[in-house]
Structure prediction request, 277 residues.
Amino acid sequence: MKARDARVLLTGATGGIGQAAAGALLRAGAQVMLQGRSPAKLAALARALPSADAATPAAWHACDLADADTLGALADAAGRWGCNVVVHNAGVPGFGRLESLTPAALQQVLQLNLLAPMLLTQALLPHLRAQGEARVVFVGSVLGRLGLPGYSVYGASKFGLRGFAEALRRELGDGPVGVQYLGPRSTRTAFNDDAVAAYNRATGTAMDDPETAARALVQLIESGAAERFLGFPERLAVRLNGLAPGLLDGAFAKHRQSLPPARPDTAPGGGLAHGAP
Ligand SMILES: NC(=O)c1ccc[n+]([C@@H]2O[C@H](COP(=O)([O-])OP(=O)(O)OC[C@H]3O[C@@H](n4cnc5c(N)ncnc54)[C@H](OP(=O)(O)O)[C@@H]3O)[C@@H](O)[C@H]2O)c1
Prediction:
């Protein structure tokens, strides 16, 4: 699909990758409907973004994706607007040892990163099927194919998303709706807090600019490829991990040793999640 033919519902448009993606899509000629939680942020972003026609800034729709009851209204609004691509980009982090994450943080990660995209896809499918060509694009992560210490729950959400994307792509294979998965590596946005930055420094993990992920998103939509993972050595690690995951276990001792300790005050019942790629 050419970007100029795409009418994209972009979730998480107010975030680091979302803002860069909205700009890259618009510059490539796509129309964009921005989704986030804050009407004020969305209206300001819509005004600030480049637009082919200054009189018609980007459309936007504010809602909390963690509230399953709002997803139908979002799908209806996107359908009326003529959406033929949905980019599931909204997400929350979840970095830290499993014992450091509260049950509430664990549920939030799975709710927003996995369940919300599944439910929104389900609500949008009748509309997308009626298009000549349509796309469902998931912004996952390298950690959707490579499990790292500190990312058990976040990784589960992104592995789940990738499994959902692969099965759905095959399920919809004889129709107009293509399904794609983008796996960025660690990216410089507010998603990653100081603990993640320290972990990345200690493990020699490189970080991309959000524009790198945004460019890759536009290329993925235009290419029609099933999935794409970003960065080296991350792409190689993803491949090796697919072939022989057990062999790679020993390669991540430094990552394990670089994790913040599980503090008693952040044990289940009182802790917070950190950022994550
Ligand atoms: N940054 C990385 O290192 C990295 C690497 C690989 C993959 N990713 C993935 O890339 C995506 C975007 O990440 P980012 O770095 O751009 O994160 P970010 O800057 O923290 O932005 C997150 C976005 O998600 C939205 N969001 C959060 N909770 C929401 C909710 N309950 N309902 C609706 N929207 C909600 C936020 O909207 P508000 O403005 O309303 O808060 C914001 O637009 C995520 O799926 C993430 O997993 C990130």
Residues 103-129 form the longest helix (27 residues). The CA atoms of residues 79 and 255 lie 44 Å apart. The pocket of NAP is lined by residues 12-18, 36-38, 41, 64-66, 89-92, 112, 139, 141, 184, 186-187, 189-192, 277 (CB under 6 Å).
